[in-house]
Design brief:
By secondary structure, the chain is of the alpha/beta class. It has helices at residues 6-14, 18-30, 37-43, 62-65, 84-94, 132-142, 159-166, 185-189, 210-218, 231-239, and strands at 52-56, 76-81, 100-104, 117-122, 143-154, 195-201, 204-207, 247-250, 253-259. The chain is 33% helix and 22% strand. Strands 3-2-1-4-5-9-6 form a seven-stranded mixed β-sheet.
């Protein structure tokens, strides 16, 4: 297999919703915290009436599916993603509504005027941005002077590092993208924002059907090194870690709330 650069790998991973839905479903089915990460994020958003929201990297729009009805109708919501497939998917999901718009947008070149948006959201995507400094500079540019920037990410002690640790003797290493994590995010954001708060979401996975976690693993481009392990071998390894028919996996997710 030839070398694929990181931007191409991300495009391949997100060109359709299949891989993303696989990863979302594992959390929906086995998360210990039943509130749900998206609902937790939404609960921390300050969404007062008469504001305009820009979401970058909206994916399938999952965060809005159970919360859209809670938005005041005076709020304008612009859902964007750099993937045309994702934008088409979320447009199909929410349809034509007066207060929702859709667009294909690259965070490194946001095609909107300065200080336009009262809230900017970029969840689980900043670590994919090739030029993160440029992307965050663009976020700051389009954010209103009294606006909020919300960005969610994972930590460096979650599911993938744990699984990689179990499989170390098979040559599997933790290839988690650490370009923007809970651990280093503050240092990156402080170059652009003066008021930054980190919030952590307490959760874990309790998996009872190993085929689900295997699907999850193979949906991740950064775990492709495990393709050399056949599925049944990997399943036997994980079975040894189960206790009482349950495989417990750590999760580390959270968000930063930023102001200029």
């Amino acid at each position: 297999m030839g070398t694929i650069n990181s931007h191409q790998a991300v495009q391949e991973q997100y060109k359709s919703t299949n891989n993303l839905n696989t990863r979302i479903s594992i959390h929906e089915k086995y998360s210990v915290n039943k509130l749900g990460f998206g609902n937790w994020l939404f609960s921390h958003y300050d969404l007062s009436p008469d504001i305009e929201i820009l979401e970058l990297g909206c994916g399938t729009g999952d965060i809005w599916k159970s919360n859209l009805h809670l938005l005041d109708k005076s709020i304008q919501l612009l859902l964007t993603d750099f993937s045309e497939g994702m934008v088409a998917s979320v447009r199909d999901a929410f349809g034509t509504q007066d207060h929702i718009a859709y667009d294909v947008v690259n965070i490194e070149q946001i095609p909107y005027e300065d200080h336009r948006f009262d809230r900017v959201i970029a969840n689980m995507m900043l670590y994919h941005v090739p030029d993160l400094d440029r992307g965050l500079s663009e976020v700051k540019r389009v954010l209103a002077e009294d606006g909020y920037f919300y960005c969610a990410t994972y930590g460096e002690n979650g599911i993938i590092p744990f699984i990689a640790g179990l499989l170390g003797e098979y040559g599997v290493t933790d290839t988690t993208n650490k370009n923007f994590t809970l651990q280093n995010g503050y240092g990156i954001l402080k170059k652009y924002f003066s008021d930054i708060q980190r919030l952590d979401y307490e959760d874990a996975l309790a998996v009872t059907d190993l085929d689900d976690i295997l699907d999850y693993i193979y949906s991740l481009t950064n775990m492709l090194s495990m393709a050399e392990l056949d599925r049944e071998t990997l399943k036997r390894i994980l079975e040894k870690e189960m206790a009482g028919g349950v495989l417990h996996l750590p999760k580390e997710y959270g968000m930063f709330i930023c102001r200029k």
